[in-house]
Structures are given as C-alpha cells and as structure tokens.
From TrEMBL:
Primary localization: nucleus
Organism name: Coccomyxa viridis
Catalyzed reaction equations: DNA(n) + a 2'-deoxyribonucleoside 5'-triphosphate = DNA(n+1) + diphosphate
GO annotations of cellular component type: nucleus
Any single Pfam family the record assigns to this protein: IMS_HHH
Domain of life: Eukaryota
Protein name as catalogued: DNA polymerase kappa
Length: 939
DNA sequence: TACATACAC
DNA sequence: TATGGTGTATGTA
C-alpha cells in the first residue's frame, strides 16, 4: 500500500560519501546550542586535526563497514518483489493498528533535562565562567561545554584539543562529580513533589508522570513544567529544559526543542503528535544514533514520517525488533508507565565492569599488572554489592582503537580479586602479544542470591512473625541469627524486614496521627532530642503534604531512611554542603573541587536561619572556601584522577495500555491519523535549534548557604572513607528522602551520605571506593521513550579514569552516568544524623578480641576487621527501626533542627533509553559516563 | 555462549 | 601529543 505520507525528500544515496564529507558529520550534528555554528568551519578543523590519527583511521574503518552494510541492504531491497513489499506493508499496517490500539494518550509526562549540566554547575562555583566559553573536561576529552562555547562548535565527547582549536579562549574545568551529584539531588528533590516515582534517566534528566498531579491540582503539564523550571531556577540556581507529552518518548524529544531554559509541549491528540513526529529528524529519536541515521538516510528516510511511509521496506530490511520500534516512533507512541520495580532480593544489574585508558603498552609484565589493578577494583565493586558472577570478559583496545573482547563463562560464580585476576590473565595471555591503550574487565551472569521461590525470605518470616504478635519484630540478632547476617544477601533481607517494619509502623503511626495529631512529630523529636533542637521543626508542620507520594514511597528504603540534612526542616534544600564533603578521597587529580558546591539555600526564611547557624558561612567565607579548594586541587594536574559518581536511572517495562481505537481501518494508518480527531492544535514549532539563550542568572542571595567546614576538613592523606552500607545498598534507588514529620521531600543519597561517612584511618586503600561504588550504571540501550526492557543499573560514577602514568597529566574521566548510591559515599556529611552514625561507627563500640577480630560491645558478636563497617551499619539500621516506630523516618531533629528524610524511591528496572524492544510499551534507561576528560590542559 | 556494534549519558 | 567509562540491547554465528 502506498504510503499516504511522504517522507521528506532525501535523495536516497548509496550510503557512502566522501571521506571528508562524512567526517564532517562528526560533531556537527544537531545539538542544542549549535544552531548558529559554522558547520563547515568545524568540519574542516576537526578533519584537519584528526586526519592523520589512529582514531580517525578507526572511524574510517567503521564508516566503511557501515557503507558495506548499506550496500547489502540495498541489494536486498532491490531484490524484493512488489508482492513482498506489499506483504510487509500489510504486516506493518497491522502492527501499526495494534500500536494505535494500545496507545494511551491520556497521560501527561514531563522530561526534564538540565542545561549544559556539568558546565552549569561549574558556573555556580565560579560565576566568572558564565560569559566565557568553557568546557568541563580536559585536553583529552570534553564532557560538556557551556552554551557560550557551543557557539564555537565545542561539544560533548569532543577531544579537548580540538575544542581548543575551535575556540582558543576555551576555558577548561575539570569535572567534579560529587558536585553534580549534589546538584542533581537537589533538583530531584524538587521533582519528587510532582511525581514521587519519577525516574532519573541520568544525573541530569528525569521522567515524571504528572498525570495524577495535574488531575489533583487541576492544572496542566505545561503549567507544572513552568513551576518546576521556576523552582529549579530559584532553588538550585540552574536552568533546565522540559518536554511535555503524552508519553516518555515525546516528552524526551520535546525537552530538547526549546533548550536551553525552555519547554515544549506536545498535546495528547493524534493530530498534534503526527504533526510533530512527522517532521522530527530521525536522529532526534533516542535510540537512533549516528549509524542508524546514516542507514535510514541511505533509504531516503530523514524524518520520522519516513519511518511510516517506508514501513514495508523497513520491515523487509530490519529485524522485527527494530521495525516495531520504528513504527512506534513513527506514530509517536512511547512508554506511558514507569519502569517496574525490581524484585526485592534480585540482582538488578546485568554486569559490572572496570576499564581504563592509559598510555599504550605492550609489555606483558605491564599488561598483567594493569590486569591486576582492574581485577582488584572490580572485585571491590563486586564485593560492595555482594555480587558473584561466572562470566568474565576482558576488553582490550588496541592502539588503533580496535576493540577486542574475550570472555569465558565458568561453571561456578566467583568474585574475589584472585579469582577474577586468574581468569582475566588467562584471557589476556591468550591475546599476547598485543599493544593496547585500554584494558577493561567485566563480570556478568550474576548469581541470583536469595529469594528463591521455595526459599522463605527473612522478610516473609518477619512479616508473619510480627503479624502474629503485637510485639515489634525483634532485631535479627535477637532471633539468634549469627553473623551471616552481615552478608549481603542477608542484608537484603534485613532491608526487607526493615521495610515491612516500617510499613507496619507507618500504618500504626498514621492511625496515631489521626487521633493524636502532632504526636508523632513530637515523638520523632524526642527520639533525637540529644541531637537537636526541636524548635526548628515547627515550620515543617505547615508544609503541606502530598499524600500520594508519601505513602507510596515512604518505606521503601529500609534502614536507609535516616535523615540527614543538617539544615533543618525549614530549609528546603537539602543540600547545604556545609560539612560536605570531605573529600572522600584523596586529591583527585585535577578535578575541580568537590567542596565548593555551594548549594544555595532557598527561601529567605531559610536563609536567615542559616545565617544564624554556626555552620553557615558568610559569602566571604564561601568564596574563600571555593578558592581554597580550587587551589588545593590544582596540584592535581598531573596524574591520576579519580572520579566521582554520577547517577543513574531506570526504566521499566511497558505495560499495555488501554486502547484507543481509531476510526476506520488501517489500510492507511497514516490517513487515519491525519484525519483523526482532535482539537487543540498545538502550534508545533519545529525550530530545533534555538538561539542559545544565556544561562539564567541567579539571584545573588541564592548563593548564600554554603559549605563551610568543608574546606576545613581535609581528609587526611591515606584516609579512607566508607559508605554506609545500610543506606547504600539498594542501588539505583532514587535518592529522594522524605521528611516523615513534615513530608518535605528533599534529600537524596547525597545528603544521606553526608551523614554516613566515617573515616577509617589507615586502611588501605583507594579511595576510589567512593567513587567507584558510586554509580556505575548508566546504560542505555533501548530507545528511550519506548523501550521495554528493564534491567537495572546501578549508577555510577567514577570517574576520572584518566590516564595514568607517563602522561603527566592524567585525565580523568568524568562522565556522566547515572547512578546514585555509593558513589557519593565519601562526600558529604551532614550534621545531624551524621553524628549519630559516626558515633555508632567510630565510637567505642568495638573491643579487640582475640585472634585479631573485634568484639561488638552492643551485641557481643565477634566480627572480622573487614566486616566492621557492615556490622556498624547493621546496628544503625537496627537502631533506627527501633527508634522510629512510627514511621519511616527516624529522626527529626538536630542541631539547628534538621529534617528527617526518608528515602522515597526504590529501584526500578532500567531500560535504556534507546531500546528498541517492545515497540509499544517499552522501558528502559540509564547511563553514565566518565571521561577522560581530564587531562590537564597544559599541553 | 561468544563477540562485535550501537547507543546513551 | 592528544579521542573517556559503565552498562544494556541487539544481531549474528
Ligand atoms: N558524552 C557525554 C555526554 C554527556 N556527558 C555528561 C556531561 C553533561 O553535562 C551531562 C548531561 O548530558 P546532556 O546530554 O544532557 O548534555 P548537557 O546537559 O551538557 O547539555 P544540554 O543543555 O544539551 O542538555 O552528561 C558526558 O560526560 N559525556
Ligand atoms: Mg542536559
Ligand atoms: Mg541529559
Ligand atoms: Mg538519537
């Protein structure tokens, strides 16, 4: 059948092009802020600087492969008979009909994406960068650039030296993930007010289903977007862009249209959707990247209308998965549900890896040493999550940039450094001799621990148990369980238990609340009386509560709920970095310092309160802090870098929706769409590139609160910080914390961590712990709006991967990733609960036992040195569950009054953004990245 | 299961 | 001189 719609006229080409011409597409494709750039100039500069490099030759190699692929497809296409095409078209018509029938246009989704995120955060620290072209990264790699720099063609993933050539005045700033994580946390705290179940796609973006919110408040998605952007501007001092649409795909694509600092809505009617999607360049679709774009263009498909118009051809040439994806995209249909939550004890991730780029090496001894380093690091990460896998993959990138992966699947699951190294070395030796610039090790095929079908889970046990008696469930150790409790699996169960406990308490408390009013609040305060002055909490009570969010999430996290935030309930934002960071680690090489983040404070009232607090630094102090920090880190310039975390996200699977049947028959779905109803004619503006508006200015006062003690507390060299396992485990959890007392949703993992770091003096290690653990996740795979799968990811972060040795300057990689948890581990500290935690940890809870182990004074358990931290976390969690019978929260107090926050979200399966799976209701998501960004710009 | 690719941030 | 790190999905064998 004929396509009723015509694709944009793109002369089908043979897919090949002149070398230079093709290369010109590198870094010149559409990107926000690049509308006015001189693409030819960029093309020439990039080409000239790259043409003799190994990297460029690798690009050519890949390009020729793509061309080859296109040639084959063309051959197949020309061999198709008209009948075959007709058959495929018919099939697609049916598929389209099914998609339409299952489409749900009644939801309202928002996709929020921060503008030039890393760069904007750096501008907060140093406002003088605002009007200068600036890039976050290093001479080796740029993570992102501010909009001023984008005018010169500088952009993400571009080598710094090319950026510098494009713009000689380009200022380089090393990435500092911890700052980005904090800012992201602050932003998310705001988002949670509109959809407590929002899904973070990465550190800088999130999907919100505001359907319920809109209904409840009789408002529209656009209005909500305006409010959110305004709040982000005021409370976080950054601008973001928002896309509003009936599904995730459309919201995601829309968020890029008015960027920066803008929003764009696609109404939920077929007319509007069709108009929008038809003209949308395919490359704008998440999941369609450089290669897919090139292939599709070879068939004359440049905009999404072409996906439908050429449905028969696409069906004949592409796999069903891709074809379905293309049809959904062409119809503007995407997921309309949040990702599904990960089952309790299930291993969410599919794999975990560690890789590093370094100066080329080929010496076996060196290679093996590198392998050992990676094994160690990976083993640590695996241990941090209690994972054991049986497939080890060794990744080698030759000096010509060709990548080789070799893997082996064992019959048993392993996790130790020794075992990992042993297997990795075998894989490595089989490849010798070889000279490489990168090595990586990945573990996958994880052992699913717990919760087997026939296995009775601890939570189930407790549930039953507690249900039978009025007594609160006894803490695990009181049940006579031994130290196996400290194992990760067991901890997961403990987590469940805590959740159940909390749930129960919550319901109890709610009834109490109903009859006693503030009683609960008082109780909460009382619990922590020693730490804080309740007075400050008063303001909280006025905070209005959003019922929805609350009950849906308050209990998710188990123990995690601690509170955090030192600032006091009245101060909204969580951030307050005051004590923040202590760098979790050592000096990173070059990264801009973590401490600076001055997260602002929010409202005037809060500001005044802050001013009073002893921690609140004056503006002057703050500046000094910042400067100091910078200076301190300057020495980094050289070698290692380390990274920090970023964040992650999730997604889930799609479900089916309710049907919308369209009139008529589908022979020509497109026609149906065309004539389909609808009112509201949105004026869709297809102005993909807006002029870069500058980044929003912030009110001076927004820069007040700050970190104060931060700088002061430098972590002693060699000091190692530990992440609170209790709070950490459950990766992927979105980090929102809700104050059980006042219901304010503010904190985040960061805040969280703020209070949980404890230093362990000596200890070995690498401080990378923190970073490492941070998030690693971030994957992406599926086509964003649509995907379907769901896997989880962790998040991660780490960064600074950089170069090692010889190169004096290392670069670090910062990347973006998503992930949340651990990453931050080391960073901050907050005032309140922090102390509690620190006491728990460091305080005299340990006594030397014979044999080198330790005796826990609280439970008399004999614990090994390596398990101390976990054990401490166990007590913390226990403590919390007891104190807070009422609800999720644990405390609400603190010195100047802090709010207790309860973590709100839980992990979800993550479907990468570009997954093609599940055409209609797919899910997906996550990310991360890092960057090598850091090489010193010294050159 | 093994490997390479594509994609996302 | 110089081009990142982590993760998921997909296609093919
Ligand atoms: N290849 C990439 C892409 C992105 N990032 C990091 C830096 C970005 O600031 C952040 C968010 O990515 P975005 O794609 O959202 O880009 P920006 O936020 O920088 O810019 P925009 O205003 O276009 O959203 O992720 C990265 O490290 N490496
Ligand atoms: Mg962004
Ligand atoms: Mg983004
Ligand atoms: Mg795309």
């Amino acid at each position: 059948m004929q396509q009723s719609r015509s694709q944009s006229a793109a002369p089908p080409s043979d897919g090949s092009m002149d070398c230079k011409q093709w290369f010109g597409t590198v870094f010149t494709n559409d990107k926000a802020g690049m509308g006015a750039v001189d693409k030819d100039r960029i093309k020439n500069i990039v080409y000239e600087m790259s043409k003799d490099s190994a990297h460029f030759r690798n690009d050519l190699r890949k390009q020729s492969q793509t061309e080859q692929r296109v040639r084959k497809m063309k051959e197949r296409a020309s061999a198709l008979s008209p009948a075959e095409i007709a058959g495929h078209t018919k099939a697609m018509d049916m598929k389209i009909a099914a998609l339409k029938a299952s489409a749900d246009l009644t939801r309202t989704w928002l996709h929020i994406d921060m503008d030039a995120f890393f760069a904007s955060v750096e501008e907060l620290d140093d406002p003088s960068l605002k009007d200068k072209p600036m890039a976050v990264g290093g001479i080796g790699m740029i993570s992102t650039a501010n909009y001023v720099a984008r005018k010169y063609g500088v952009r993400s993933a571009m080598p710094g030296f090319i950026g510098r050539r494009l713009c000689p005045q380009l200022v380089f700033v090393k990435p500092c993930f911890s700052k980005y994580v904090k800012v992201a946390a602050a932003t998310r705290a705001i988002l949670a007010d509109y959809d407590p179940e929002f899904e973070a796609g990465s550190l800088d973006e999130a999907y919100l289903d505001v359907t319920d919110y809109c209904q409840m408040h009789s408002t529209s998605g656009e209005a909500v977007a305006e409010v959110i952007r305004q709040r982000v501007r005021e409370e976080v001092a950054l601008t973001c862009s928002c896309g509003i649409g009936p599904n995730r795909l459309l919201a995601k694509v829309a968020s890029d249209i008015r960027k920066p600092d803008g929003q764009f809505a696609i109404p939920g009617n077929t007319t509007a959707i069709t108009r929008f999607i038809d003209l949308l360049p395919i490359r704008k679709v998440p999941g369609i990247g450089k290669v897919s774009e090139q292939v599709l263009k070879a068939f004359g498909i440049e905009t999404c209308a072409g996906l439908i118009a050429n449905r028969g051809l696409l069906s004949a040439l592409f796999s069903p998965v891709s074809t379905n994806f293309f049809m959904a995209v062409g119809l503007g249909i995407g997921r309309t549900q949040h990702g599904e939550q990960v089952e309790e004890g299930a291993v969410g991730r599919k794999g975990m890896s560690c890789e590093r780029t370094f100066q080329a090496m080929g010496e076996p001894a060196e290679l093996e040493a590198k392998c050992a380093e990676l094994s160690e690091k990976l083993a640590e990460d695996l241990a941090s999550e209690g994972l054991k896998g049986k497939t080890i993959t060794l990744k080698l990138k030759e000096t010509n940039f060709e990548v080789r992966t070799r893997n082996i699947t064992l019959t048993r699951h392993i996790s130790s450094r020794e075992d990992v190294l042993h297997e990795a070395l075998k894989l490595l030796r089989a490849e010798l001799p070889i000279t490489i610039r990168l090595m990586g090790i990945r573990m996958s095929s994880f052992l699913e621990t717990n919760t087997g079908p026939g296995q009775r889970t601890l939570s189930a046990f407790l549930k039953t148990d507690s249900a039978d008696s009025a007594a609160k469930p006894a803490p695990p150790h009181q049940h006579g369980w031994n130290q196996t409790f400290l194992d990760r699996e067991t901890r997961q169960e403990l987590d469940e238990q805590m959740q159940q406990h909390r749930l129960k308490q919550k319901s109890e408390q709610q009834s109490i609340k109903a009859s006693a009013g503030m009683g609960a609040v008082s109780d909460g305060h009382a619990a922590d009386a020693t730490l804080a002055a309740p007075a400050a909490c008063r303001t909280c009570e006025e905070t209005d509560v959003d019922p929805g969010p609350q009950n849906s999430h308050a209990d998710q996290l188990g123990p995690g709920k601690l509170n955090i935030n030192a600032a006091g309930c009245s101060q909204r934002p969580v951030l307050q970095m005051k004590n923040a960071l202590e760098p979790c680690q050592a000096p990173e090489a070059g990264s801009s310092q973590p401490l600076e983040l001055t997260l602002r404070d929010w409202q005037p009232a809060a500001a005044s309160q802050l001013a009073r607090s002893q921690d609140a630094p004056s503006d002057g102090q703050q500046q000094r802090l910042q400067q100091g920090t910078r200076t301190d880190l300057s020495f980094l310039g050289g070698h290692n870098s380390r990274g920090s975390p970023e964040q992650q996200q999730d997604s889930a699977s799609g479900g089916k929706e309710i049907g919308h049947s369209f009139p008529g028959d589908l022979t020509s779905c497109r026609d149906v769409l065309d004539t389909a109803d609808d009112a509201g004619e949105p004026d869709l503006v297809h102005a993909w590139d807006e002029e870069p508006a500058g980044i929003g200015e912030m009110p001076e006062e927004a820069h007040q609160s700050g970190s104060q003690g931060a700088a002061a507390k430098a972590t002693p060299p060699g000091a190692r910080t530990w992440a609170c396992q209790v709070c950490t485990f459950g990766d992927n959890r979105p980090q929102i914390l809700r104050c059980s007392v006042c219901d304010a949703v503010r904190g985040t993992t960061l805040d969280y961590f703020m209070g949980h770091n404890a230093e362990v003096s000596s200890a070995s290690a690498s401080q990378q712990d923190a970073q490492d653990s941070a998030a690693k996740a971030g994957s992406r795979s599926k086509r964003p709006g649509l995907d379907a799968t769901g896997s989880k990811q962790k998040s991660i972060l780490r960064f600074f991967a950089g170069f090692e040795p010889p190169a004096k300057a290392a670069e670090s990689s910062a990347l973006a990733g998503s992930g949340n948890n651990k990453a931050l581990a080391g960073e901050q500290r907050a005032s309140s609960s922090v102390q509690t935690h620190q006491q728990a940890r460091s305080g005299g809870m340990w006594e030397r036992a014979e044999g080198g182990s330790w005796l826990c004074k609280q439970c008399s358990e004999d614990v090994l040195e390596k398990d101390k931290s976990t054990h401490e976390d166990f007590h913390i969690a226990l403590d919390m569950s007891r104190k807070q019978p009422g609800q999720a929260v644990t405390k609400h107090m603190q010195r100047q009054g802090s709010a207790s926050m309860t973590q709100t979200q839980r992990k979800r399966k993550v479907t990468p953004s570009g997954s093609r799976a599940g055409a209609e209701g797919m899910n997906k998501r996550s990310v991360k990245s890092v960057a090598a960004l850091l090489r010193p710009t010294t050159m």
